[in-house]
Amino acid sequence: MNKRDDFIERMKANLEAWNAEIDILAAKARAAGDEARVKYHDDIERLKQRRDETRELLEELQQTSEAAWGTLRQGLEESWERLRKAFADASSHFK
Question: How confident is residue 95, by pLDDT bands cut at 50, 70 and 90?
Answer without folding.
Answer: low
